[in-house]
Design brief:
The protein is an alpha+beta fold and 175 residues long. 26% of the residues lie in helices and 37% in strands.
Length: 175
């Protein structure tokens, strides 16, 4: 009898759709841009956690410091804002990472968002840099069946737009 019940249970697992029981999956956006500036010049701009003047949609920003654990608030129009905390700052490898603490879903519909920017020299040219922006996050709605504006596709689209505007803004400020 136990054998029949075990076999029946195993067969039923074959027909169960596990995808309906699964929550959101982690999304990633990785973009990079070549900048006609030395890695040190690019690093000087992005490593200053008290600054975020390169994104065209940013109206103002403030920070309580420049060391790990510092908080930064980025303000947009209509009193929308994103608050972040500095997680990593590696001067030798030219890597900075932060995490979003709070966000307005119309700007960045995400949960557990972290970003890492890294600067490297373009081989053979001391005055050209590659700036890489990596973002990892979950969609804006953590449950199953998210509203369209908070689903994986739209969350990723908003993050990609934000990342590309940031990279183009940094490039335009430095060139």
């Amino acid at each position: 009898m136990k054998l029949i019940l075990s076999f029946t249970f195993l067969i039923s697992l074959l027909f169960f759709d596990f995808s309906i029981a699964h929550g959101p999956s982690r999304q990633k956006v990785i973009e990079s841009i070549e900048i006609n500036a030395s890695p040190q010049k690019v690093w000087s701009m992005i490593s200053d956690f008290s600054n975020y003047n390169w994104h065209p949609d940013v109206k103002s920003f403030s920070s309580d410091g420049k060391e790990i654990g510092s908080k930064r608030i980025i303000n947009f129009s209509e009193n929308k804002k994103i608050s972040q905390t500095l997680e990593k700052l590696n001067y030798e490898r030219k890597i900075i990472s932060w995490r979003i603490l709070e966000t307005d879903n119309s700007i960045m519909p995400v949960n557990s968002y972290s970003a890492t920017l890294s600067v490297s020299k373009i081989e053979g040219n001391d005055n050209k840099s590659n700036l890489k922006f990596k973002a990892a996050f979950y969609r804006g709605f953590m449950g199953n069946d998210p509203p369209e504006e908070l689903n994986d596709e739209n969350s990723k689209k908003k993050v990609l737009s934000f990342v590309n505007k940031s990279l183009k803004g940094i490039k335009s400020k430095l060139e």
